[in-house]
Description:
There is one protein chain. The protein is mainly β. Helix content is 7%, strand content 49%. It contains 3 helices and 32 strands. It has helices at 3-22, 35-38, 50-65, and strands at residues 81-92, 95-103, 113-119, 125-132, 142-151, 154-166, 172-183, 188-190, 206-219, 222-231, 236-243, 249-257, 267-275, 278-285, 302-309, 314-322, 330-336, 342-347, 362-363, 370-375, 378-383, 391-402, 415-426, 429-436, 442-447, 452-456, 469-473, 481-488, 491-496, 501-506, 515-520, 523-533. A hairpin with a 2-residue loop joins strand 9 (206-219) and strand 10 (222-231). The two termini are 34 Å apart.
Amino acid sequence: MDSYLSSVAARSNSRTARFLFSSSGNSPSGRHFTLMNLLCITLHGAVYSKLLEKARSYEAKKIAATDKESKPLFHISAPAGWINDPNGFSVYNGKIHLFYQYYPYLREWGPMHWGHSTTSDMIKWEQLPCVLAPDEEYDKKGCFSGSAIEADGKHVLVYTGVTRIKLPDGSEQERQNQCIAFGDGLNYVKHENNPVVTGDMLPENCSRIDFRDPKIWKEDDTYYLIVGSKDLNNVGQVVLCSSKNLTDWQFETILAANSTGKIGTMWECPDFFGLEDKHVLICSPQSMKADKYEFHNGHNSVYFLGDYDKENHVFIKEEPHTLDYGMDFYAPQTTLLPDGRRVMIAWMKSWDACVVPDSQDWQGMMTLPRELEIKDGRIWQKPVKEIENYRANKCHYTDKKIDCYTTFDGIKGRTLDMTVELSGEEYNNFTVEMACDDEYSTAFTYNRVAGMLEIDRTFCGVTKDVVCVRKIKIADTDRKLKLRFIVDRQSIELFINDGQQVATTAICTPLQADGISFNCDGSAVVDIEKYDII
């Protein structure tokens, strides 16, 4: 075992042992975990199978060899290989935990593991060893997405185990079922009677192949989880199940479905929670068609506000809306912080567009966590307030006239928080170019007359025929346009008008391109406030 794993094992030795022995009579399962389930236990007490040991060892070596300057400064990124959906976003033992879909060996998607990071403030993250590998018969094709909850002092992971079964005619078919693992914040043990929720519990017209991504929560003395699904007519839906003890589950109802047929097909990565006086259902539908500027083609992330009858498990949903209008946002997941904030994080990527340079051996980032609130019947998002603790080198310009290509002293950088407030009516198009030099740029152009904002990353360094332009219809054109840019090396997150709309864009621009410029085809007036993030 290398020094990285040795140190992890040493840290975890005593509490892991206590957890294992306490997981017999007093665990939520009420059953004994056996050494056969563990496959192997290291001499230091860390619990992991041979496949997990291999993954942990490999990722440790890759992390040790990685140039930290090539990775995002304050966003989670792949420790090695590939990451996608955020999983298990939760609070346990005073720390905020985030897991994610993970294939450490290549920068392409492969048999899914769960990677793991923790934080105290959602800005600085500690990389921990991955916690799940596809090492059991019921998850041998992958440990797909899921969630986490604290229960009886344990950290409980709920995930989709993917396997294949043989049909009577001798052919094979995939099955997706829901599994659980219990842990101490560092090491996790899969339940001996997994899977605990199977497709056979669903109505006959529900798919057993597309049944994934459980999100768990507790109300009073009952645990609930929703799971993404679709019926045999390819209609996306979300199903609701319940349990008193985390291991014995029953199907309750189909909580929501794609009744109009317009919201894609399979509804992936659902989330369901109360926010102020409403309930919110989030899902990520596949294979959507564009609906003007509200929904784009392909994979989307949408939300429904609505009213929820908890006693009868009936959710009356309103019209769907887009969560993020950019090019790189999918599979969001939320958690409730102890201070009452509902915070959301998402995979900063699109399945259909990849902007990774060929020389980069890792793929995948997460968005900056965002605080959610409801205003005017919509969800508004803003960066978590903790980002302000990392601001430095304030640079402020007031009432500056822009009537041609313009730059300002001190306004540049690739890790920054910058707000531009735009006023005046003597122009048609106003452009901010980020991460730019003579060769590279990512442009944000506002057409005042049409009330449209266009994002164009054509010249950010991409070498593939991927989506590079997206247009956003600004929701409120009766006020000064306020654009807040959060930039972290390989990404630009734009919060429009205090978070009324958000647009996330990944870029692959060399870090030496750190310029910021402004241009206008007439005359505009701007206020600029910029901080470095350090």
